[in-house]
Amino acid sequence: MGELTLPGLIDAHVHLREPGATHKEGVYTGTAAALAGGVLGILDMPNNTPPTVDRATLSRKLEMFRQKAVSDYSLFLGFDGRNVAPLSELGGQVAGLKLYLDETFGDMTTREPRMLAEVFATWLGPGPIAIHAESPSIRVALELARRYGQRLHVCHVPDPDDLLAIETARQAGVAVTCEVTPHHLFLSDEAVARLGAYARMKPPLVAPRQVALYWERLSLVDAIASDHAPHTREEKDSANPPPGVPGLETTLPLLLAAVDEGRLTLERMVELTYHGPLRIYGLAAPVDSAVEVDLLERYALPAKGYRTKCGWSPFAGQRAVGRVRRVRLRGQVVWEDGELRVSAGYGRELGRVGGR
Ligand code: NCD
Ligand code: ZN
Description:
Blueprint (H helix, E strand, L loop, with lengths): L2 E4 L2 E6 L12 H10 L2 E6 L10 H14 L3 E7 L17 E5 L12 H10 L6 E4 L2 H14 L3 E3 L5 H12 L4 E5 L1 H5 L3 H6 L12 H9 L6 E2 L8 H4 L14 H10 L5 H16 L8 E11 L18 E11 L2 E5 L2 E2 L16
Parallel strand pairs: 2-3, 3-4, 4-5, 5-6, 6-7, 7-8, 8-9
Antiparallel strand pairs: 1-10, 10-11, 11-12, 12-13
Helix pairs in contact: 4-5
The structure holds N-carbamoyl-L-aspartate and zinc ion (ZN).
């Protein structure tokens, strides 16, 4: 049996770089890469230039997605330490609020305790507060979520021990969910010696022993999200390379290889890549949609030939199972045998459960 039909992936953490850095990626190239990877819908991060932090920047970005996206999407509102007013006004238009408690690409870090408390006091949802945070900051955010009764989502969990801290908070009644990236599951810090800047991202890769712990503790994880963060080769080869790696097109074949090896079940894979992300953000699945995969295809991930504009992958050479044959999105074939079948603007904003 070589054909597998999946509901498709929802990738809850991507950086499509538009506006501000379309030499790395754009809404059209990024959502096409999503479909190539069997991803029906993406959640786009706010660390753009300018950052998505108020009504004007959000409206412009939504309009751009309406015109250019080929996959479905939802956007994040961000906070850059300046204006909290949008946090009580714009929640209905976004998947959630993205808060940066530690440094990464972009300039949106908020650390000041009184400001953080104000953010947690002001956000009205309905989506969660999703955080970029190193381990000590995760503890700070868990405490704030408890104090203000906020729903918290921990992005790209930086250390497998954080999964235990998150579970302890959950047991104590904090509404917290978390995601892990494919690069933390399929690469270790040994890749840095081989790939240099091409294996550098935030949070950084960890030792093989910790990678094994992510796998052991996968039952504590709510979603796998790529953190697709493309940068050009030129930028990665420069003296001051930015952190981040692409991932939209590699999550599915890597996970199917893991399923093939008995490291997780297919059902659990679907939970982590589809039901989980939708549930975390309260989003509705696109109707009449599916991804057909040819499971007989077993291969090593290539170094090039990707749809993402940056054109490379840190996973080149890794074992992969399955190739996306056909993607149906809201009743229409949108991707078939390596070809995009719809034009810019086919993508729609993901609906909210219970209506937007
Ligand atoms: C991301 C980027 O490049 O926008 N980089 C990264 O290393 N993950 C930002 C982020 O998600 O931290
Ligand atoms: Zn990110």
